[in-house]
Amino acid sequence: MDNKLKLGGIAVSAILLAGCLSSGKSDGSDAPAPVVGDNQQVFKATLKRTAFGIPHIEADDFGSMGYAYGYAQAEDNLCLLAEDTLTIRGLRARFLGAGGNYQIPSNGATTTNLNADFFWRATATDDAIQPLKTGSDPEVGEASRGYVAGFNRYLQELRNGEHPGRHEACRDEPWLMPIEEDDMYRRYLRLAVLASSSVFVEGIATAQPPAADVPELSADAILDALADIGIEDGGALPFPFDTELPIGSNMYGLAAGASRSGESLLFGNPHFPWEKTERLYLAHLKVGDDTEIMGAALYGLPAVLIGFNEHFAWSHTVSTAYRFSFYELTLNPADPTQYLYDGEFVDMEATDITVQAMDDSGEVSDVTRTLYNSRYGPLLTFEAAGVPILNWSNLKAYTLRDANAENDRLLNQFFRWNQADSFEEFVELHGSVLGVPWVNTVATGPGKPAYYGDLTVVPNVPDSKVQACTTALSPVFDLLAPGLPLLDGARADCQWDNDPDAPAEGVFGPANLPSLQRDDWVHNCNDSYWVTNPAEPLTGFAAIIGDEETPRSLRTRKCMEQVIQRLDGSDGRPGSIGFDMANLQDIVLDSSLMSEQLAREDVLSAYCPLGTLLGSDGQPVDISGACSVLQRWDGTHNLGSVGGHIWREFWRNVDPLPVESPIKWLTPFDPADPVNTPAMLNVASPLIQTAFADGVKAIQNSPMAMTAAMGTLQVSGLHDTAIPIFGGEGFEGAFTIASSRPNDLSDGQYNVNYGNSYIQTVTWDEDGQPRAEGFVTYSQSSDPASPYFSDMTEAYSGKQWIRFPYRQAEIDADPQLVRYHFRDLTDNR
Q1: 497 Cβ partners below 8 Å, 6+ apart?
Q2: Neighbours of 344 (CB within 10 A)
Q3: Which end of the chain is more exposed for a tag (fewer CB within 10 A), N or C?
Q4: Choice among 106, 249, 591, 595 that is catalytic
């Protein structure tokens, strides 16, 4: 078979993967030939790509699977992966400049390259990754070694002059280096601590004992300083005092009681950055006769983290649980590097770290810092809005214990899930391995119930321990970050507790973590576990895991409302009640807004007859043109919708206002009705009036026309061509997420760089085989020269759902099929 792929008018023959890429055509055989890796392990795998660059890998063992996976990811995303390797090795300042900017979009951390290097040199040490290496199952090690060999194989081909035109951003850079096995485990650790230690990159990298007399700040002084700059709670602060990471997700598990046909369905949709290595990559993996799984993983992980097979499907959303606790250290007044523990002063562990740094002239020099650890973890400082909240004074210092830095079960969780034989085994593994780092899980299977669990790695800090181990700064935490523990580090009894059913010390066991199975539906859209299904609230869990009987976000309310209205038929969709693939797909991409449903009619009725409103600067704003547009708006952020950008800028000003009645809402929150309350926007409030005037003024002051359609305003921020993107922001109650960060209207566009990422809708046919459709919204490759750089994004823009081929016959029948064959490389090395 001579399959060809038409791309941009170029016919690309099926690729023969050998020591050098052959210009000849494949013989059509699927039988893999052996490849010998640098460690003399023999790899045998078949790699095929179907339309949109979806890799289908078949191998006899996990090492060979990892080899093909590493090669495919390098081909698609070499530069991103290479930069990540540079980061976790602590080499950014050496090659990218000491003053260059380093960001982790997924957790909001930002600092310099130099500080990033000190942080990762201190965090991803040989000792830190050793438990992951020794504690992981053999399959993890095999796949990791294979990935390294496959990645390096592609890199060597590039260096040999192959793949012309590809990866221009890095192919000639000195920092494009082969990877090693330890780099894999450093990357795994980096992902494990994404919601914990790496939030504090700068604070850990720069924490130093006081050089002079530094006074201790009182709780009242900190709260007063925040109040002076207009911050009364954590809403305007970064994580963890905002309590919410910059990443999010939506997911549904729909069992027979919510399905038209009686067959289960699953919807999963992480909201992750479109940039850097927290992108998701879709692949289909088959290892031997017992393991077959399809789905997505974060770059650099040779497994499926969200996916499906014939037995089950699952997805994740970011959990509200904290993965760490702070400890307050009482210092020796004569030596700020000694702290009190159990009645005695003990020395901090001091480590000298040297980083190479390049200055603006290109000169490279050594920079050395001494960083400090306590028995709990690293010393750190933390500022929020310029206010020092955690400060190293002469009497007090602060340190962090990170449960996921101790999580050696992370890889086992996903590799064992990938090999599970049943829905029941999947659920059992969730609690018995307990390696999921920071995400909720929803799962179902053919003829199975809908399952939810926040069975994750959470410090075992019950509410009683928080109360018993209170410190002078506890009032700050109680106000800004309820549930985040600040414990007294001087007392041994303030160490984390142990549960008899936990697989490791210091974390909650499954019996103390929330889970639920139902025959109708479960969901999570990033609020806590409390109303996973409002008919069966989950209560009684420690505050560190999440809040209960508190208002849900507008997105979560939209999330629940969509299911409730589909099951009672009040959403107006045709046909019988319940879900099928077609109406599920329509609902999850319909781009409607909860805020519009709750407030547009009241806002327009109250304000539009006035013609003008006063803005926050005291000047009148003509709102008549905006009102005319909003009165005709269809209430969505679909591509052809006109007026939604005006509403967005208005609600951007409403969102920070306190939820409590009557500041924002006249109908207060009712724990018995979390879907429909709070309600009735207080349009008589001067704060709401000003928010509307300022939102209209923001559009008037921008190049955006009042009458512009969303499809002309909101485009992909990654691609050279203007690919229009539908969807809205979570703060305005959008379920379909498209976000531009930071918000900047100066160029007249919303340049999307975050939001809907990997999307899967899954059910099973009458033969029990999975039927799955979805998208990788930003496409599979980050290389502009790749044929897979923008094709899925264009399909997503048109809401053209992509079938994920699972059966072998369907894969082989794909008219755009490309085959790669591995052959013996020993003669080429």
Answers
A1: 460, 461, 462, 465, 506
A2: 9
A3: C
A4: 249
